[in-house]
Structure formats: structure tokens, C-alpha cells
Amino acid sequence: MKLIADSGSSKTEWCLVEGIYVIERAFTEGLNPFFQMRREISRSIRLQLPEVFFKKKVDQIYFYGAGCSSKEKKDVIKASLVTQFRAPAEVESDLLGAVRALFGNQPGIGCILGTGSNSCFYDGEKIVKNVAPLGYILGDEGSGAVLGKMFLSDCMKQIAPKDLCDMFYDVYKITPADIMENVYSKPFANRFLASFSFFLEKHLDHEYVYELVSRNFRNFFTRNIVHYDYKAYPIHFMGHVAYYYADILKEVASEFDVVVGQIEKSPMPGLVRYHTAHCRLD
Asked: pLDDT tens for residues 73-103?
């Protein structure tokens, strides 16, 4: 029995896999060792996962997560997993999870556009080049958090069109003071900011929104993709922002003579295929 988990900044997807079949699936909040201590992570796992996950005998855990880029951070997650499930755990970055899901054992340039953003060159086995994503304050171009950040800033500075701002404030029943508190005083500001990308997605026919999204994707290409040998390898995308804004993403990619390959909302189907491939050969 394998337990496969993929954790972004906003949510974690868990699958119990027996042979080549998913027998249980669940979602919990995102787990990120940059923002949470081991005790918080363990508590989240124990209280939010259905009890069936703890009753099954797990032989191996594969966990892919945002913030799992260093041994120190991986060990925080690993210790929580081993304590909760009493099984060996392999902890890797969400970026490696994305490219394993997208490419399997083939080389290519893999990108994440979700709550945050990231990219890398994957040689079919490991990540060999990674342009630093830098998070939503210094980087994360094209991500939901940066889209939300720019839109909220434009609303509060009265730069965004009045009709769109009025609609936004009416839908969310939120004030500028609420926004400031959530961004500067409460945890997980990136999740808060990214949540408003769903509002933008519903208004892509608005010229302002179209330009905002296009500009962000253009920044993602110029500040990330062009630093790889991007015309020699396929480029695939993972994440809800890439998935829901696919048409604009493809339009911007064409400006760089790039033909976008796969666009997947979640890596889990690909990760299940990756980790059960040997089962099909038995």
C-alpha cells in the first residue's frame, strides 16, 4: 500500500494506492514547512485526514510539497509523516512532483502556475536547473498570489476600473482595512491573495483583467523560461492558474515562439502513474 501526497500552498491531495488503483482520496489544507512547525503539520494531518487513512497499513509514503527544497525542511515533513503513519517516507519538492507527473522519465521544462509559480529543466530523472521562484514578494510571476496582489493593489489605489472594483467589493464584502489586515497581520497571505485569482478568471472578457493576466504571464516567461534552453525541449504546465487561464497562457507563449504542451490542474494522476509503473510490468 502506497500513500502519495501532493501539497501546494493552499491544499494537500492524498491518495492511498493499492497496486495500480486509488482506493482512498482526500484533501486537507496545504502543508508548508516554511510557514508551519512540525507540531502544526502533524496536527493538521491527524485532524483533517479521514480515519481510514490511519487504519490501512501503509508500506511507503511519497510526499511532494511546496517549501520542501532543503533537507532541513524535508525532515520537518518527514518526521510528521513517519510519526503519524509508522511508515518510511520520501519527501521531495512540489516541483519534482510536477515534472514526474508531467514528463515521467522524459526530459523537458516543467512549470508550476498555481498559488505560487516555479520552473525547472528536468533531465528525465532529476531537476538539473531551477530559476529561483523567490516567493510572492520577490518573484512568483504569473502565480495566483501575484495576480491577486496586483489586482488588490490596483483596486485600493483606484487604478483598476471602477466597475470591476465595485463588483469585487460587492462579491467579497471586504474592505481595504480587511485586506491590509489579511496581508500584513495574518498568516498565509499568499493563500489569501491567490484566492482572488478565481474572481479574475470569471472576468477575462474585461480588458483590464486580460491585460493584467497577460502581463503576468509575459513576466513569467521573460524572468524564468528564457533562462532555459526553452526552444529545444517540450514545455508543460501544472497548476490551477495555468489550467484556467490556458488560452491566455498559450497566446503569450506564442510571442516567445513556444508551443505549450500539457496543461494539468493537478499532478496526482501523473504521480499515481509514475509510482505504479512497475506494477504494470509485474
From this structure: 899 899 989 888 889 999 999 999 999 999 9
Tell me the whole-structure pTM to 2 decimals.
Answer: 0.86
Q: Could you give the 3-state DSSP secondary structure of residue 42?
A: helix
CA distances to 44, 84, 110, 141, 224 from 77, rounded to whole Å, are 12, 11, 24, 27, 28
Which of 98, 117, 102 lies closest to 234 in space, CA to CA? 102
Helix (H) or strand (E) segment spanning residue 262: strand 260-264
> Element (H or E) spanning 7, and its range?
strand 2-7
- Are residues 130 and 98 in contact, defined by beta-carbon separation less than 8 angstroms? no
Number of H helices, E strands in the chain: 14, 10
Backbone angles phi, psi at 61, to 5 degrees: -115, 135
Whether residue 278 is predicted with pLDDT greater than 70 in this model: the reply is: no
Whether the predicted pLDDT of 19 surpasses 90? no
242, 111 contact by CB (below 8 A): yes
- Per-residue pLDDT for 168 more than 90? yes
Nearest 5 degrees, angle CA 212-CA 29-CA 118?
Answer: 45
| Nearby residues of 247 by Cβ (< 8 Å), 6 or more positions away | none
Supply the mean pLDDT for the chain: 91
Domains assigned to the chain? 2-98+268-281 (3.30.420.40)
Beta carbons within 8 Å of 263's beta carbon, 6+ residues apart: 236, 237, 238, 242, 243, 246, 249
Q: What is the pLDDT of residue 279?
A: 54
Concatenate the DSSP letters of all residues of 96-137 into one string. HHHHHHHHTTS-EEEEEESSSEEEEEE-SSSEEE-----HHH
